[in-house]
């Protein structure tokens, strides 16, 4: 067992990650009848003419001002556009794009007086899935933005120390991952993904599974003792459901103020079978009914879960890291912290 002092001192375990400390108390729900909306859109992911028609109809119905429009680019995936929207007075920012656009916009919107609305337009749409929002109905999504209500959800802040000792700061809403999922994303062809969606991941998954490299890491949960582990994959989740409604993190709740951290530690074919059965059958099917929950097994050796509000991790060597489905290079250490209720998202009225 290592001691807490082994955690890297340049990514502190106690101090706030940054000065954006929005919480449920600091971000009161706003239910005003009218406001000013802005759309931050990824031109590759959306049909702008269709969105503009739907927005024009809903903004008039709701009595809102004329909506502002901001386009993302390769150089600016959404942060700059979202900041421009807020500086222009937007009280609601609609993220029209994939998970990367949503994450980038939320990174700026959280801690402001604006709310985030979602127009799911990508392959995963993971935040929308975890909020049970409509995924393929443009009119319903825009209607929810203008006539829905605010729901406070958690947002995570993360500091990543890279191989060159630089430290970058980001937000994420769904998951941060090391190992299989990060390597899979790094191996996925973006052009193929745009053409065939999630099927593009199949070849990348096979490539990642052939990699027998294990993660060697030390982690501290909520400032507690440091533990040393070896794992194939580590995922820190703010929400638990993936594409195809796969429930990977069964106790990750988007508004409970905590992460759920998953460590996959398979050693051979039998352990992979245990993982598949646990995730797809038990989490995906049995857990959904009272009778099924009584039939579930205890934790398996190859699959471990822990929960906490802050996690600090140091890796023995640089590893690929992903946030909400986008690669962020390699990491040698990171610290992630939940900001409870730090983001308001528009959801349908009851």
Question: Care to describe what's here?
Answer:
This protein is α+β, with helices and mostly antiparallel strands. The protein has 2 domains: 111 residues, Rossmann fold (3-Layer(aba) Sandwich); 149 residues, Tumour Suppressor Smad4 (Sandwich), CATH 2.60.200.40. It has 10 helices and 14 strands. Strands 5, 6, 7, 8, 9, 10, 11, 12, 13 and 14 form a 10-stranded antiparallel sheet that branches. A 4-stranded parallel sheet has the order 2-1-3-4, sandwiched between helices. One of its GO terms (molecular function) is ATP binding. Belongs to the diacylglycerol/lipid kinase family. Keywords: ATP-binding, Kinase, Lipid biosynthesis, Lipid metabolism, Nucleotide-binding, Phospholipid biosynthesis, Phospholipid metabolism, Transferase. It holds the Pfam family YegS_C.
């Amino acid at each position: 067992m290592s001691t807490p002092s082994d955690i890297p001192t340049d990514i502190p375990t106690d101090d706030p990650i940054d000065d954006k400390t929005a919480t449920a108390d600091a971000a009161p729900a706003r239910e005003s009848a009218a406001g000013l909306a802005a759309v931050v859109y990824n031109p590759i992911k959306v049909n702008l003419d269709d969105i503009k028609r739907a927005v024009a109809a809903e903004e008039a119905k709701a009595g809102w001002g004329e909506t502002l429009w901001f386009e993302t680019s390769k150089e600016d995936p959404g942060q700059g556009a979202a900041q421009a929207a807020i500086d222009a007075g937007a009280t609601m920012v609609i993220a029209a794009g994939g998970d990367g656009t949503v994450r980038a916009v939320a990174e700026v919107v959280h801690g402001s007086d604006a709310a985030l609305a979602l127009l799911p337009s990508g392959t995963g749409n993971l935040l929308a899935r975890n909020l049970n929002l409509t995924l393929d109905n443009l009119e319903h999504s825009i209607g929810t933005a203008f006539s829905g209500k605010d729901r406070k959800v958690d947002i995570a802040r993360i500091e990543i120390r890279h191989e060159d000792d630089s430290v970058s700061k980001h937000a994420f809403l769904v998951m941060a991952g090391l190992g299989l999922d990060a390597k899979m994303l790094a191996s996925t062809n973006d052009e193929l993904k745009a053409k065939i969606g999630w099927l593009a991941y199949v070849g990348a998954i096979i490539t990642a599974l052939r990699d027998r490299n294990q993660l060697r890491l030390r982690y501290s949960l909520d400032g507690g003792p440091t533990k040393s582990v070896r794992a194939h994959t580590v995922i820190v989740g703010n929400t638990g459901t993936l594409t195809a409604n796969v429930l990977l993190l069964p106790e990750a709740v988007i508004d409970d103020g905590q992460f759920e951290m998953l460590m996959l530690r398979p050693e051979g074919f039998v352990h992979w079978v245990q993982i598949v059965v646990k995730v797809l059958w038990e989490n995906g099917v049995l857990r959904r009914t009272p009778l099924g929950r009584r039939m579930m097994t205890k934790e398996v050796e190859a699959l471990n879960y822990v929960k906490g509000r802050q996690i600090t991790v140091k890796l023995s060597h640089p590893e690929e890291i992903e946030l909400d489905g986008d690669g962020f290079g390699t990491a040698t250490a990171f610290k992630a912290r939940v900001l409870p209720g730090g983001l308001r998202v528009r959801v349908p009225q009851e």
